UniProtKB/TrEMBL annotation:
This is Xylose isomerase. Gene3D superfamilies: Divalent-metal-dependent TIM barrel enzymes. Signal peptide: none annotated. It comes from Bacillus halotolerans. Belongs to the xylose isomerase family. Its EC number is 5.3.1.5. GO terms for molecular function: xylose isomerase activity. The keyword Magnesium applies. It catalyses: alpha-D-xylose = alpha-D-xylulofuranose. Binds 2 magnesium ions per subunit. NCBIfam families: PRK05474.1, xylose_isom_A. It is an enzyme of class 5 (isomerase).
């Protein structure tokens, strides 16, 4: 029998507030590198990193995978329905406090269960959002972003804004409308669109042009509605190449940027880039970040990592120091993430099923990014790669190169130059030497 709900429980009793103890600490519940108040380059680590805890992986997920049942029995799981939803909020805010996490993120359906009608679903959401708001009033934690889950319910079998069924498009619009109201209510710094089922499986039954046009129409309606209600958070769109659909429309940063520009949405949206989605798209995480950065569209980050041996979306906690360093390198060069942050869209492994693993994993991820921040800052301060790159492209700062970059060259002048230029001399790119320097910094900074 489900117990009746009580808010006075301590779910992570064995865990004290996690504090910084430094690199020699052997305490698994202490930070070794993340020292929130330490200033690096004029900002505290906390301000640079803007860590966020993902509600779905942390308080809702149960370890179910396609081959097996739940492995994770959480101390709040004896509740059902709305009581369970409330208990999860209690657990969430206890954990935010213990980790001193500045932000969290959620899908509408993570926090409150669906009712039998949309109206009832919205009522459930209102109750939980009210409870979250109350907690936020007494804590420092803020909402990095919220989003709408438009992929779990069977109604989204053919997509949401790209469904072949206009009734589904309308339902999705109602859901995002509510999501924007929630964002405003809770002061969400961003609102995310991840097109979970916005893609297709076969062209044999798909009107690709109509689906893309509808997706853009949907985004424009969201922009208009945010304006109407005075919600001023940043809109973010999160690319992913596949899973669950075969071809997701927001495949990667470049594809998404082209979509935003094609439909006149690039002034309203930035990108939320996830490490594991980058690798699924056949890119490195830093490639995606750089691509968004050079277009002025780097908005926020879903901090995780995939498993290259598996090749699907494993959403592991980020522990790879090369990846965290090169990601922080892009973020620092971007001047930070603005209203964005580093959201741990990451889940503990199915075999790490004890509640404490939820804390160990976040500590691991926070430390890995703190280390990445320090190394990246030093690499930039010492101009290690900046100088190399500047030198490598120096031919464009004088002579014919300058004529090209200043728009004074054309095929006639270039042909003339090439005909007269007897010897082309290239220089080594020195990749291996640069990677060795990166290793030195990671090991010694
Ligand atoms: C799934 C996505 C999802 C978004 C939010 O792969 O990462 O969790 O971040 O809907
Ligand atoms: Ca994500
Ligand atoms: Ca993912």
């Amino acid at each position: 029998m489900a117990q009746s709900y009580s808010s006075s429980v301590n779910y992570f009793e064995s865990v004290n507030k996690v504090v910084y103890e430094g690199k020699d600490s052997t305490n698994p519940l202490a930070f070794k590198y993340y020292n929130s108040q330490e200033v690096i380059g004029g900002k505290t680590m906390k301000e640079h990193l803007r860590f966020s805890i993902a509600y779905w992986h942390t308080f809702t997920a149960d370890g179910t995978d396609v081959f097996g049942a739940a492995t994770m029995q959480r101390p709040w799981d004896h509740y059902k329905g709305m009581d369970l939803a409330k208990a999860r909020v209690d657990a969430a805010f206890e954990m935010f406090e213990k980790l001193d996490a500045p932000f969290f993120a959620f899908h509408d359906r993570d926090v409150a269960p669906e009712g039998s009608t949309l109206k009832e679903t919205n009522q459930n959401l209102d109750i939980i959002v009210g409870m979250i708001k109350e907690y936020m009033r007494n804590s420092n934690v803020k909402l990095l972003w919220n989003t709408a889950n438009m992929f779990t319910n069977p109604r989204f079998v053919h997509g949401a804004a790209t469904s072949c069924n206009a009734d589904v498009f309308a339902y999705a619009a109602a859901q995002v409308k509510k999501g924007l109201e929630t964002a405003k209510e809770l002061g969400a710094e961003n609102y995310v669109f991840w097109g979970g089922r916005e893609g297709y499986e076969t062209l044999l039954n798909t009107d690709l042009k109509l689906e893309l046009d509808n997706l853009a129409r949907f985004m424009h309606m969201a922009v208009d509605y945010a304006k109407e209600i005075g919600y001023t958070g940043q809109f973010l769109i999160e690319p992913k190449p596949k899973e669950p659909t075969t071809h997701q429309y927001d495949t990667d940063a470049a594809t998404t940027i082209a979509f935003l520009k094609q439909y006149g949405l690039d002034n309203h949206f930035k990108l939320n880039l996830e490490a594991n989605h980058a690798t699924l798209a056949g890119h490195t995480f830093e490639h995606e970040l750089r691509m968004a950065r050079v277009h002025g569209l780097l908005g926020s980050v879903d901090a995780n990592q995939g498993d290259p041996l598996l090749g699907w979306d494993t959403d592991e906690f980020p522990t790879d120091l090369y990846s965290t360093t090169l990601a922080m390198y892009e973020i620092l060069q971007n001047g930070g993430l603005g209203s964005g942050g580093l959201n741990f869209d990451a889940k503990v492994r199915r075999s790490s099923f004890e509640p404490d693993d939820l804390i160990y994993s976040h500590v691991a991820g926070m430390d890995a990014f703190a280390r990445g921040l320090r190394v990246a800052h030093k690499l930039i301060e010492d101009r290690v790669f900046d100088d190399v790159i500047q030198h490598r492209y120096r031919s464009f700062t004088e002579g014919i190169g300058l004529e090209i970059t200043e728009g004074r060259a054309n095929f006639h002048t270039l042909e003339q130059y090439a005909l007269n230029n007897k010897a082309i001399k290239n220089e080594s790119g020195r990749q291996e030497r640069l990677k060795a320097i990166l290793n030195q910094y990671i090991l010694e900074v």
